[in-house]
Write a structure and sequence with these properties.
Elements lengths: L22 H17 L3 H17 L3 H18 L2 H17 L3 H17 L3 H17 L3 H18 L2 H17 L3 H18 L2 H19 L2 H18 L2 H17 L3 H17 L3 H17 L4 H18 L2 H13 L4 H4 L1
Helix pairs in contact: 1-2, 2-3, 2-4, 3-4, 4-5, 4-6, 5-6, 6-7, 6-8, 7-8, 8-9, 8-10, 9-10, 10-11, 10-12, 11-12, 12-13, 12-14, 13-14, 14-15, 14-16, 15-16
């Protein structure tokens, strides 16, 4: 059985915060508690409160503030000699690096976080850091390398009855199945994740699971209206908690659903919205996916083929440099579909 979801990144004086707390509220309270700790000369407490501040900034898309906050948290933890708090700060920094598309840095910081978590005896930060490594590999499309790690972390989370981590692992495995064409397995895993998240009152995890279900219903069944209904439910949760990144991905997915349904003008509007949101928070992968969707929608709406080809070629270079293999494969398929010479596409 799973208990209520909790947020282990809310530490020290902030343990009373809920996993569903508005990020604006988390930032306000975390900043206040951080200043109190700094004024009273308590570096360990400053490190713990600074972690919540860093995570709130990151999830709100405030990249520069998040970068400053996790580094300050690490310095405070090091001053206090708190190895586990140092690990948590590195985990936050590694997660931010992945969000920005700096994958080598993400691997390095998350690997160090896992090592320090084990050394400091904090199995939770060790697990979160390993999960971060697994997610980094998954996002880059290296499924063979990280598939077993996802399964291992899922088993560990199930044994501990930790709902939030179980939901994360289920969604990661589901996404890999979806991307390799096993839609039925993906749907079953997203469905289980949604059920666990709902029972555990994990609104963030539930919103991501609904997004996954909507994707499968759209691509496998062509069930546009049901997919849009699920995305609307997920969007409501994202707005309540101020989940900027999740909301942008929700909008991008809605664009996908419209595109698959042949509603290209509506798809274009959603891709443009998501693109602006991703750029505002320096979310490199989301930006690339929104650019791809927008290029395809514009092509369907009559954009000149040579312009489309130029856009896709530039996007391919960006993805080649960043190491996003799965997204690069998607661009390659689009290049074949929208080749300047129709004969090439055949």
């Amino acid at each position: 059985m799973y208990g209520k979801a909790f947020a282990p990144e809310y530490q020290g004086a902030l343990t009373t915060l809920s996993v569903n707390s508005s990020l604006v509220d988390v930032l306000a309270e975390g900043t206040e508690r951080l200043r109190e700790a700094e004024r009273s000369g308590r570096p360990e407490e400053a490190a713990r409160c600074g972690l919540a501040v860093a995570e709130a900034h990151r999830r709100l898309g405030q990249v520069r503030d998040a970068d400053r906050a996790w580094k300050a948290s690490y310095r405070s933890a090091r001053e206090a000699g708190d190895t586990a708090a140092m690990a948590w700060a590195l985990w936050s920094g590694g997660t931010l690096a992945r969000q920005r598309g700096a994958f080598p840095l993400a691997w390095r910081l998350l690997g160090l976080a896992a090592e320090l978590g084990e050394r400091g005896g904090d199995i939770v930060v060790r697990g979160y850091s390993l999960a971060g490594l697994a997610e980094t590999g998954r996002i880059q499309g290296d499924y063979e390398a990280v598939g077993r790690l996802h399964e291992q972390l899922l088993a560990e989370a199930r044994r501990r009855g930790e709902a939030r981590h179980t939901v994360w692992a289920l969604e990661g495995i589901a996404q890999m199945h979806r991307n390799t064409g096993d839609y039925d397995r993906a749907y079953a895993l997203f469905e289980e994740a949604a059920e666990i998240a709902e029972r555990a009152d994990d609104r963030r995890g539930h919103a991501w699971a609904l997004r996954g279900l909507a994707d499968v219903l759209s691509v496998r069944d062509g069930n546009t209206e049901r997919a849009l209904e699920l995305l609307a439910r997920a969007e409501a949760a994202c707005r309540t908690m101020n989940l900027s990144s999740a909301l942008a991905y929700n909008h991008k997915m809605r664009g996908n659903v419209f595109y698959r349904a042949g509603r290209y003008a509506e798809a274009r509007e959603l891709y443009e919205l998501a693109l602006g949101e991703f750029r505002a928070m320096s979310e490199a992968r989301g930006e690339a996916l929104a650019r791809l969707g927008l290029a395809k929608a514009l092509a369907r709406l009559g954009r000149d083929r040579t312009e489309t080809a130029a856009e896709l070629a530039d996007l391919a270079k960006v993805l080649e440099r960043s190491g996003l293999r799965h997204a690069r494969e998607m661009v390659a398929r689009a290049q074949e579909e929208f080749a300047p010479d129709p004969e090439v596409a055949r």
